[in-house]
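Q: Convert this sequence to structure tokens.
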Amino acid sequence: MAPPYLCQVSMQVSCGACCGLYNISNLAPERLEALLTERTEAFARIPRVAEAIEDFGRQQLGWTPEERPFPHFHHCPYVGLIGRQRSRVGCLLHPDQVGNQGRDWRELSYYGAKACRTYFCPTTHELAAVHQEILRQGIDHWYIYGLAITEHRLWAAFFHALEGRLGRPVIPADFSDRSGVRVGLMAFAALKLDWPFRQDRAPGPSHFFFDDERYTRPDVERADPSIPVSPYEVIFRELESHFKRADDQQQAEALVEGCIENLVAILRG
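A:
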């Protein structure tokens, strides 16, 4: 199976993670959507000339000296909401964006037009194509999709556990027309948003997904060295977990197992 296209999926689902979409403080979904709405409306009012576009960029959040979770990673001031209903994230400089009249203004972005056209995140070659397609089908909103799809190690470990419990590989058809399965998949994806065992120094739901070792994920922290390594160690590491007591890890395992067992029950039903 050829790798699917992960960046723009549907009218509600797209990813702007490589644009630094999530590299801001206070990543509450309502706050981020309000910021993008205001930015999109403001961009629609400016003339399409280089000087005006560059001035717009300098005035946006992406170019201010605010403290970000990943200081050496940018937040593009030209990522906004696109589509007729402005229902997904995308590039305000793209030639298909309303108002650009087919002109590609992406050379004014942080990395330039070539990078925007040719870069694909590690998930496209690190996560099995079948699992990529399942995530495309199973996640129904851009906010959680962009946070989740770039977590290739997390999802590889999850699908390994799911398929081991199910006793067979999963396929996209398992998830195509079954709302219960999609709800179960979303339940696991949602663990990333509000993981109760996240390390205090962790940046929250956002993460650095480039494979350049600049911001590597820390090992699971255990205050009590007698707490054993978990069968879900990779998942817990990718969620940047800290366990104070053995009970904490047991509760974390129950959360993950609950997601897996729910999906297995539906898929076998």
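The mean pLDDT is 92.
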